[in-house]
Amino acid sequence: MGKSKEPFSIENYEILPGTVHLVDIGQNLNVKKAGDGDIILHPQPTNNPNDPLTWSKGKRAFQFSLIWFWGFMVAGSFNFMGPLYTAWIEDFGVTLNQILIGSGLGFLFLGTGVTIIQPTGLKLGKQFVYNVCTILSIVACAFGSQTKDIAYFYAFKIVIGLAASPVDSLVEISSTDMFFQHERSTAISWLVMALYGGSDLFPVAAGYIADSMHWSWTYYVQIMIYVPLLIVQIFFMEDSTFRRGGSKNNEDSLEEGILKQIKSNETNEQVATSEDSKEQVEIEVASVNSSELPKRTYWENRNWVHREYNDKRSWFQIFLRPFTLITFPAVVWGGIIYGGQMCWISLIVNLQAAIYSNPPYNFSVGIVGLTTLGMFFGNVVGMFYGGPFIDWLAVKLARRNHGILEPEHRLHAMLVPTVLNAAGVLAFGLGAYYGSHWTISVVIGMGFMGFAMTSSGSCSLVYAVECYGKLGSECIVLMLFIRNMIGMAFTFGIGPWMDAAGTYTTTWLMFMLSLIINGSYLILIFWGKTFRRWTKDRYERMTVGLVAH
């Protein structure tokens, strides 16, 4: 809705991590904005030709699409095998619980891989990590196609877990390299969609392939996609790493300059004084615009290793830093929300074959794979809710708040996924327990959960990154480490849990767990700003001399 009714007072403005001026309500601030509008660009683009924020829209879209498709592929490779479980139990003479151990190992190495891959990407460039992990995915699929017993499957899950680990961390950081703050939910929701889209659609393809050919072809087909993808990466992918900073951080300079201009206008100083303050902002921003490096050539961009804009800290320092954020509530909350989603997706992926290949459904392997389309369509709708809608909501609430964006503004959108995820868990579990028509568990159950997973995932990630922007990379690593450890524990435990409690009791327990986990956003709505106030001094000490990467 419209502009704020009460005049903004600089005296009432509290500078906290994550609080920024997003909208120029008075249309009188001398900063770079989106087009001809009033949305202030965060971060401010520089004059450096290698700054990804200065790329054309077409180039940004192409580079982002490469990362999106890469994420879609590795996420699918990690989660495609659900419809094959029944065949493997028969072929290998194993139990479902033994197969679920393999899934748990995958989450273990997905989580630990994040802590290794992220510092490597920040030291050697993201392009290096994407290329190496594509090669690892090819090796993993080649090995998986030769599976003769359960040990082969365990080895495959370990390698593909390591290969897929950037999908949980580095791709999100790549999106923050290429998009501004007011576009961030949209970009990250697309990446979360890649994660869940691959997890949803690959089982569909795997089911049909296994119905018409030997299941080993599910691996061969992936190799046939990965090889051309690697070629495209080698010849067209560019590294998006860029350190923005001179003597001061870009965001610090921007916010200080905005405050000077507002204060000048509030105190009704002379026009000359006001003009001086505007000039000061230009000087502050220009100090981070200067660069002696020329634009990289095509062949320089073909290098796998890029170190000119890398993180200057040691690899070991980068490795350890995420774990120091364990006392930052916003980051831990984001990890728990994201970890809860691993419970819901693991519930579906690991039980769909047991539910739909047996009475009363008796679906073929191909049809079992099709059931994940319910979750996929929910993911698509959730992507638009968790992306463009939440970005729109953030700008709308910032306008109401005198142009100032508080990270908690985005959290108001968590109500819908909280309700729908809990309803989806009930529809999926109880629908299967009572043998209801498949539309109850597939369309309503998986659809609602799919919507909630995509929308709440992007919301929690963006919230934590906005709270502590200069530690965005470390925030994502810790959140994803927490997420994957929760996913590992749940996957190891879901089999024995179902055996001991039964489908009915397990479903109601999952329903209550869903409400508690997702509903915890209310804590951040009411006390998130207080938590940021508590962590302000620690955050500033941790970021002294640190520039954005």
Describe what this molecule looks like in 3D.
This protein has 549 residues and is mainly alpha-helical. It has two domains: 53-241 and 311-542, Up-down Bundle (Growth Hormone, Chain: A); 245-305. It is 69% helix and 1% strand. It contains 19 helices and two strands. Strands 1-2 form a two-stranded antiparallel ribbon. Helix 1 runs parallel beside helix 4, helix 4 (126-144) packs antiparallel against helix 5 (150-164) and helix 16 packs across helix 18. The longest helix has 48 residues, at 472-519. The radius of gyration is 24 Å and the shape is globular. 52% of the residues are buried. The model is unreliable at 1-5 and 268-286 (pLDDT under 50).
Question: What are the main properties of this structure?
Answer:
mainly alpha, 19 helices, 2 domains, 69% helix, Growth Hormone, Chain: A, globular, 549 residues, two-stranded antiparallel ribbon
- The CATH first-level class of the largest domain comes to Mainly Alpha
Principal-axis shape equals globular
Stretches where pLDDT is under 50 for at least 5 consecutive residues are 1-5, 268-286
Provide the number of structural domains: 2
The CATH homologous superfamily of the largest domain: MFS general substrate transporter like domains
Query: What integer is the average pLDDT?
Result: 84
End-to-end distance: 34 Å
Biggest pleated-sheet summary: 2 strands, antiparallel
Oligomerization state = single chain
Helix content: 55-70%
CATH architecture of the largest domain: Up-down Bundle
SS field, number of helical segments: 19
Could you give the order of strands across the largest sheet?
Answer: 1-2
- Derived from helix and strand composition plus strand pairing, the structural class reads mainly alpha
Looking at the structure, the CATH topology of the largest domain is: Growth Hormone, Chain: A
Radius of gyration from the alpha-carbon trace, in angstroms: 24 Å
Number of DSSP E strands: 2
Portion of residues in beta strands equals under 5%
Query: What is the string of helix and strand elements?
Result: EHHHHHHHHHHHHHHHEHHHH
